[in-house]
Amino acid sequence: MKLFRNLFVFACVLIVSSCEDDNWNTDNPTTEEEQVSNFSENFGSSINARFMGKVINEENNPISDAIISIGNTMTTTDSNGVFSILDASVFEKFAYITAKKEGYINGSRALVPSDGINQVTIMLLNLDTTATINSGEISTVDLQNGTQVTFDGNFVNAEGESYSGAVNVTLKHLNPDSNTMELQMPGMLFAENANGSPRVLETYGMIAVELRSTSGEELNLAEGSTAEISAPVPQNVTNTPPTIPLWSFDEENGYWKEEGSATLQGGNYVGNVSHFSFWNWDFQYPAVTLCITLTDVNGNPLPYTALDLYSPALASTGSYGYTNANGEECGLVPANDEMTLVVPSFGCVANEFTTTIGPFSSDQNITIQVSDADALLTNFIGVFNDCSGNPITEGYMQLFYNDSTQTIPIDNGILDLAIDYCSDNTAYSALVVDLLGNQTTDVVTGNFTEPTTDLGSQMSCVDLTDSDDDGVFDIDEDVNGDTDLDNDDTDGDGIPNYLDEDDDGDGVNTIDEDRDNDGNPSNDDSDGDDIPDYLDNVDVEIYGAEVAGEGCAPNLIFDFDAVILQSYSGLINNTYSFYLSEADALADVNPLPNPFIDDGTTSMLFVRATNTITNQFAVEVVYVYEDYLDSDQDGLSDCEELTGVNSSNPNFECNPNGNITDPNDPDSDDDGFDDCTEAQAGTDPNDPASFPDIPMFNCCNNDSLSDLDVDTIMNSNLDVNFPDLITPNGDGYNDLFNIFNIELYPSNMLRIYNDQDELVFLRENYDNEPLNAFDGDTNTGIEIFDGTLRYELIFSDEDGQENIRNGFVCVVTQVYSGTNFLESNCNTGFDPIIVD
């Protein structure tokens, strides 16, 4: 699924806010003669614009205290992840918003600003370590979906100085098949190509790569070094050109720049890069500007309404976010393509309004009337003043309905919003925040009504108070976001969080979990699990693990530093100790030395992780084992062969019985018996003259076969001679049931039965030719096992008289040189082979 999405929000992308054609050429790439001396000249003049937005993490939870920058203007997000900038200096056709927070990859959004409030959502990607590599070594870091980066091992720090040591790599794949990509990607799909000309992009995927030293210092590739990047082609892509341009994101200026190309190799696009930021696989496409206005059945505009476009030609989803306050959304769409327009969850959750639009060969402005039989409409109105009676000029409403929360800007104290809702779910709750006065209204609850739902006049005189003096405003203790403070009780003690001095019930008051002393406990997450410490009753992240020791019992070595690196490298602010029992770990007594040498009898250890910031601890089990390899597949583990000590692993049934053998040779003495067989038989697997006793086979026969060579045996019976034994093992000796003189009696029938008197072989006109003769295989579908079979030959002699011969034949497929056969009494029926 390719992506041409989020090119703008609440405004025209690459065009002015009125959506008039500014003659931006987005057709095929320019020729070499094109020159653009200053790319920013494409952005127009400087203007002032207003912005409001929300910053969330990969789990869609709000991120508080993120630093927001637009030009020279800065602010931070509140506890709901919301920010507001009343007056920022931007360009007519380009505004660039950045969001930064420790523990996350820097995020951003670019758009063409419009009149009114420009609203955006930015999803920050977690800065979690994908893998740790070492400088000076060629290393590959990959993801399960096939995304990978190969490094040459040369790195520098931010000052350009050579770096030596461990490198923590964060690798993220932004997949066009995912509906969250437009929230995660930086900027918008707008670029400067290799000729310096502006272009709109169609993405085949992006990656983000962050490099950090073990102390958190930012790193990058050394000058002259390159890395190979590879990402899978999106699942729904139908057009896969052999090469595609590569683009890097310019974090300073806010747009993409063409740098090289990638080639299609198998199912991945692969290219080489000389530095890291975000990288993007894209090509350009011709486009027209389309402005869509959504209205309800009464002709009222539908502001802040989600809108998606599907392009059959691109086999992709174009999700443009929301309409602006006037119900309008503009952007670039493929020229001459019919498209499907979808308004998701219109009225009721999961209800979709769908219609077909286009094709368009030139810029267009269209109006779409949205309707659904199950959707009801109301004009949601209200007046909101600060506590002095003046209109709120910088604020927002948290509106909860249809099982979700919407953030709606409040401008000049007026709310006039068309709301589509479901007839069987009319309830709502609302709260208005005055960002300037640091106050809120009371929570308003009710039910939507047609044609108008009037909230009346509300005043934001509810201070952002802290009822329990725990350092968290009451409004910020609405954990579930439904605006009802009384149903938020993290520790379940019956006291809602806004009245509870210890919100998580861990014995540490919330105010004391403000580790950085900034007055806000909500931004302290010492174990990095995305849960603030004051809501986390165990401020330490640890989990169970399975670890193989080095060497073999009784000298099995466990290096705890290696265990920590292998199993817990992604955790932060922890120290670790290991113990033989859970009781010792809980009491922090009798810690094990490092390295720990085990005799092979220990199956589990216990790790105690202690948070270096909070001093809280947690204990988990670590399962330890010998690395049970069987390199030569002889049934003995490598360690059993190297030590002669029997393993406790039930997968290895052989006991080496003290014998030291070659773990890479299944038959150490080359006597035809593998080491496992000799160990079980009690013979010496290192002495070719010592091997297990030869099996004794008892077969029915009238003559003694004892001490005869099975490869030359043949006994006679009357004028037609039958073999007493066949050995169909493919060696050319006695592989077939050859009947002597059978060619004298071509009119015959041979039947062979097993010990259950089941017919296992039938042949008319039997002869000794390989294709006709019995070779131990059934031709009736009944399986034949080694042992004694009964045969019956019916044949006509030269006088036409019918003759019958009966007897027994022993079938042995696994024989050893010198095997003995003992006489057995067959008078009372079958006596199958007995292997002693």
Mean pLDDT: 83
* Low-pLDDT segments, ≥5 res: 1-37, 313-319, 701-718, 815-820, 822-836
Strand elements, count: 51
Structural class by helix and strand composition: mainly beta
The termini sit apart by 67 Å
Radius of gyration from CA coordinates: 40 Å
| DSSP helix fraction | under 10%
Number of helices: 5
What general outline do the C-alpha atoms trace? Answer: elongated
Task: Specify the biggest β-sheet.
Answer: 6 strands, antiparallel
Q: In percent, how much strand structure appears in the residues?
A: 35-45%
Report on this structure:
The protein is mainly beta and 836 residues long. The chain has five helices and 51 strands. Strands 31, 32, 34, 35, 36 and 38 form a six-stranded antiparallel sheet that branches.
Q: What is shown here, in short?
A:
This protein has 836 residues and is mostly beta strands. The chain contains five helices and 51 strands.
Outline the fold blueprint.
Elements: E1 2-3, E2 46-56, E3 67-70, E4 73-76, E5 82-91, E6 95-100, E7 107-111, E8 117-123, E9 131-134, E10 139-142, E11 148-151, E12 155-157, E13 162-163, E14 166-174, H1 181-184, E15 190-192, E16 198-213, E17 218-221, E18 227-232, E19 243-250, E20 255-265, E21 268-273, E22 278-284, E23 287-295, E24 306-311, E25 316-322, E26 328-334, E27 339-344, E28 352-357, E29 364-369, E30 375-386, E31 395-401, E32 404-410, E33 414-422, E34 427-434, E35 439-440, E36 444-447, E37 452-460, E38 462-463, E39 545-548, E40 556-558, H2 560-568, E41 574-579, H3 582-587, E42 596-598, E43 604-611, E44 617-625, H4 638-643, H5 675-681, E45 696-698, E46 725-726, E47 748-753, E48 759-764, E49 787-796, E50 802-811, E51 820-822
Parallel strand pairs: 1-25, 2-8, 15-20, 23-29, 30-37, 39-44, 45-51, 46-50
Antiparallel strand pairs: 2-5, 3-4, 3-6, 6-7, 9-14, 10-11, 11-18, 12-13, 12-17, 14-16, 15-16, 16-17, 16-22, 18-21, 19-20, 19-22, 20-21, 23-26, 24-25, 24-27, 27-28, 30-33, 31-32, 31-34, 34-35, 34-36, 35-38, 40-42, 41-43, 43-44, 47-48, 47-49, 49-50
